[in-house]
Amino acid sequence: MADVSIICGSASDAAIADKAKKILDEHKITWDYQVISAHRDPDKLDAYIKNCPSGIYIAIAGLSAALPGVIASKTDKPVIGVPVSGTLNGLDALLSIVQMPKGVPVACVGVDNGDNAAHLAIRILKLAKN
Amino acid sequence: MADVSIICGSASDAAIADKAKKILDEHKITWDYQVISAHRDPDKLDAYIKNCPSGIYIAIAGLSAALPGVIASKTDKPVIGVPVSGTLNGLDALLSIVQMPKGVPVACVGVDNGDNAAHLAIRILKLAKN
Amino acid sequence: MADVSIICGSASDAAIADKAKKILDEHKITWDYQVISAHRDPDKLDAYIKNCPSGIYIAIAGLSAALPGVIASKTDKPVIGVPVSGTLNGLDALLSIVQMPKGVPVACVGVDNGDNAAHLAIRILKLAKN
Amino acid sequence: MADVSIICGSASDAAIADKAKKILDEHKITWDYQVISAHRDPDKLDAYIKNCPSGIYIAIAGLSAALPGVIASKTDKPVIGVPVSGTLNGLDALLSIVQMPKGVPVACVGVDNGDNAAHLAIRILKLAKN
Amino acid sequence: MADVSIICGSASDAAIADKAKKILDEHKITWDYQVISAHRDPDKLDAYIKNCPSGIYIAIAGLSAALPGVIASKTDKPVIGVPVSGTLNGLDALLSIVQMPKGVPVACVGVDNGDNAAHLAIRILKLAKN
Amino acid sequence: MADVSIICGSASDAAIADKAKKILDEHKITWDYQVISAHRDPDKLDAYIKNCPSGIYIAIAGLSAALPGVIASKTDKPVIGVPVSGTLNGLDALLSIVQMPKGVPVACVGVDNGDNAAHLAIRILKLAKN
Amino acid sequence: MADVSIICGSASDAAIADKAKKILDEHKITWDYQVISAHRDPDKLDAYIKNCPSGIYIAIAGLSAALPGVIASKTDKPVIGVPVSGTLNGLDALLSIVQMPKGVPVACVGVDNGDNAAHLAIRILKLAKN
Amino acid sequence: MADVSIICGSASDAAIADKAKKILDEHKITWDYQVISAHRDPDKLDAYIKNCPSGIYIAIAGLSAALPGVIASKTDKPVIGVPVSGTLNGLDALLSIVQMPKGVPVACVGVDNGDNAAHLAIRILKLAKN
């Protein structure tokens, strides 16, 4: 049972996830790490979300980064999205993550900024503990 | 039983869908029209896809336009995506639709170009009939 | 004593704030509303933050939208940023809000999307109540 | 007689074509490969299109990527366009390929995403075989 | 027999062509005006180019503006391209026109700037007359 | 007591500051150099500004570059901002620095252009000496 | 003999100049107003600069906004540039004004932000008076 | 006495000029090569233009690329502009060159595309010789 679920859309995003893990470890926040593509493993993602005990998601994805939004559509827990840079410098992932329709919010942080995803999760958890 | 399924992510995209319907009607292609948000109605979307007899999808969405990609992840039929313009001129929806990860293709047409979604569907159906 | 502090950088952003207030009201979340420019009223902003009992901030700003980041630098509570569109379609405010340096996170939502700022705040507060 | 015609606008796009060939080979789809510039070899392109037995085109081009659109204007078969990245990160080719006028559709996939061009062709051919 | 051929890709570009005609008239330069889509009327365009007595082309087009490039690929006369603005503010047409491959040059002027297309044609014709 | 205060938002911006120092040295303009993050050290920044004897600030920052604007909001001396490039090529820092609200001006120079920040400071100081 | 010279590149930029004049008037700063295009009236611009008694220039221009840079290349006084929005939302003018080569600095303010040009001029003049 | 004047705004643009020289040499077109900054050497540029016997200019520049426009404002010969890429991928130079005001045309070619500048000059000279 972890405080935070970190999910990457692709194994190639692991370096961004590592930044988040390091910050969470320093603050003694536990995490569970998964690589699940919203587009290629939708059933696995559904199953994970249904049984997930964590209070917060950090979803890391590049390109057409649907992962954070799909998670947000299937849970009412806070979802933090991290856009990953690529050929278009991460602008594609940034817009895909931040421009969510009304009612399905994602908390977007900066391009490749796994650190701030963790820092934001820590602020949210701290509020919950007070 | 329709040839083409037209799905809008929001009722506000109806004008773009109308362009596609008109072209399909002119070519005597039958269609089924739905408004289902990938983000707000994921279960309804899943159910529709499982029972959908159409051979092709036209998915129309703005903002973080996950609809075409989510459909493409749950069917192996061709999916045509139409980005809808908004505050960012449709650049957000265009990048969200076209920049799909490997293995989950979406056939993206131009911003607000419901006509070409229909014309592309017609070309695909014509190939199937030959 | 309110659950959420909504701060606009300019009185002209009030329409975006109204969207957030409406959603919060529907969920019986209390809010305090302020118009304080990070650039023009830095001392007033400091004073407000020091005495603010709310658990979460929603900061709404256009142009070089420093407001969410400045608040995040002076509190360890979660800060949600809403970019407001203008001549550059909100791309300036979006990048100003989301591209924060490591250690000072802001949870950015979509351009002009006051609704999702409220929905995100509700998810965070719900986590805190569990 | 091949199932798919793969045409590059320049020999320098061969690496993107290779990605498509590999996927098609894995699915036992036959292909014919050509390097024909729409701008430098218009007559050769015309001649190829007139005699082409393939059911689908994959057209790969960078810069002002007219190739997919020119092919689509001379055939009524489905044309899949792949934008190739360069100094402007492929944004030029992406917009050139996707923003086609009404009546001349191109199915655009992601920047440098030769894989998805093949996957889309496979979906279209599968529909044709059912 | 006209000095300059003005070709629009769509009848909706006529207002931009009118700006060019007015400047040419003021300088007593004769012009021939056509509306021919590179994508929808490729054969008509070919026939026109083969018999065109004008020394210079002004090609006006929006979206994926292939017209100037296609003309430049079929003549060795100077071709001036004018990008026309639309949903993406003309950025699509601008990049489509200016980013031509080596060996097929187009002289691009500003977005919607039919005036400067005429002024540029006048400079070129003046050089020819000296 | 220096003529110009050079402040970097991060130690990683030092190379841009070095360009400015070199030009100022060549013109025998004295400078004081500090690394103070507007987001991470707001109190240190406040204290520095209150006691700063320099007539001009050069503020160098990347990402969501709030530093120049925050300084401009706490002094009525001229503030020159230098955007630093990163994953988004400096477009984020450029828009964050230049799009200031009315009444809080920042003099923005080009991306990574520490030289011109110094040259601009020299012009301003020369005016003051006349 | 005015404190500040305000020069517009086109009469159509007058509304932006009016914002600057109003602020300068409120601060009892005198100004001289001219409409001189860097591209269409280069000799008039040269003559004006040679005889200009003002200490600071405010140069306002849209499109390929060469005016501020050309002035900066012919004087060693501070030049403030104001980009004016148009079809491309002012991004063209912003980049033209801010991205100056080393040694020829322009102090760029925000798009259409005539107010901040005046406020910046006031800060510079105040420094000169101390 | 050369057919074409090639002017670079900076010695660092020489590689782009070399591409143009090579093409011109192959077509036995003579050229004169200069490095003159519009911003740093305005008087040298003026003097060169006044005495220039060439019929066409090729002006190569990066950043805020005023060079082609300034030349076009001081001659009525055709001026071809080549944007040079840098931190912003050449988008700054492209917009600075192509978005000229009415009456002062520049013939813009693609980013870093010295080849096409030469090819365009050859087309213009060929017209002049017929």
Automatic annotation (TrEMBL), chains A, B, C, D, E, F, G, H:
Keyword annotations of the record: Isomerase, Lyase, Purine biosynthesis
Segments forming domain PurE: 2-130
Name of this chain's protein: N5-carboxyaminoimidazole ribonucleotide mutase
Superkingdom to which the source organism belongs: Archaea
Pathway assigned to this chain's UniProt record: Purine metabolism; IMP biosynthesis via de novo pathway; 5-amino-1-(5-phospho-D-ribosyl)imidazole-4-carboxylate from 5-amino-1-(5-phospho-D-ribosyl)imidazole (N5-CAIR route): step 2/2
Gene3D superfamilies from the UniProt entry: 3.40.50.1970
Molecular function per GO: 5-(carboxyamino)imidazole ribonucleotide mutase activity; lyase activity
Described purpose of this protein according to its UniProt entry: Catalyzes the conversion of N5-carboxyaminoimidazole ribonucleotide (N5-CAIR) to 4-carboxy-5-aminoimidazole ribonucleotide (CAIR).
A Pfam family: AIRC
Top-level EC class: isomerase
EC number: 5.4.99.18
Binding site for substrate: 10, 13, 40
UniProt record, GO biological process: 'de novo' IMP biosynthetic process
Catalyzed reactions: 5-carboxyamino-1-(5-phospho-D-ribosyl)imidazole + H(+) = 5-amino-1-(5-phospho-D-ribosyl)imidazole-4-carboxylate
Family from the record: Belongs to the AIR carboxylase family. Class I subfamily.
Organism: Methanoregula boonei (strain DSM 21154 / JCM 14090 / 6A8)
